[in-house]
């Protein structure tokens, strides 16, 4: 995979692109999608297309809980949010589309912050952002147009169950400071983007955790992966919009409202709560909700 990238000349292109260019690209893409959704929101309100009732409050709660977790741990927004949406009865393709759309606004701010504070490994960024985005595009297309939602739902719940178990494993395992060699980084990013789009989450647990196992700087690894996540999320969302249209705006608005409320609290919790305890609680939450999803899909 890395040789293929070199053949295409992407390594040379990456040398000419600065982090300032990446920052401006994030701003431009965010403004474009924000303008589009503002237009849809105004059009929908004028046509009385939205019902902001009790169900909308549940979406706010899901966004609040997921952002609270992500703010304190730096990962698991997609995993926890998708698990909650599936538990609320949202079809997998709309759950994943909603999560990725709402994540555009949070990951964009996160990416700009990491660029501002020089938390980016530029070489690593270009090794994961291209293949990660390609994986996300393929995954989004598969779940939105090819895979049957009812058939795939128990498999997605099982995938989320495995991620929940992994989070519990990560909480209880002993710290190992030995460096590991993670080969084929672009391939890892491709798998992370693919599974993230299909399952509604997992980019952080899959990509960040594996890269950190090298023993590299957590600051630059987390900053780089979080910045690349914006582009992975953005292109997955574009596919969802192109194939599905925008039939999930109420869910997205609820997740964004809940996330905005929870964002400052997440930082406060991160400074107060034991992160291992929080990781255990998140793992249990994901295991229970995804376990319920499997049981409901197979036996109800």
TrEMBL record:
Indicate the family of this protein.
Answer: Belongs to the 4-toluene sulfonate uptake permease (TSUP) (TC 2.A.102) family.
TM spans, by residue? 21-42, 57-88, 124-143, 155-172, 222-245, 251-270, 277-298
Source species, domain of life: Bacteria
The cellular location(s) given in this protein's UniProt record come to: Cell membrane; Membrane
What protein am I looking at? Probable membrane transporter protein
Keyword Membrane applies: yes
This protein's membrane topology, according to the annotation, is: Multi-pass membrane protein
Q: Which residues form a coiled coil?
A: none
Q: Which UniProt keywords apply?
A: Cell membrane, Membrane, Transmembrane, Transmembrane helix
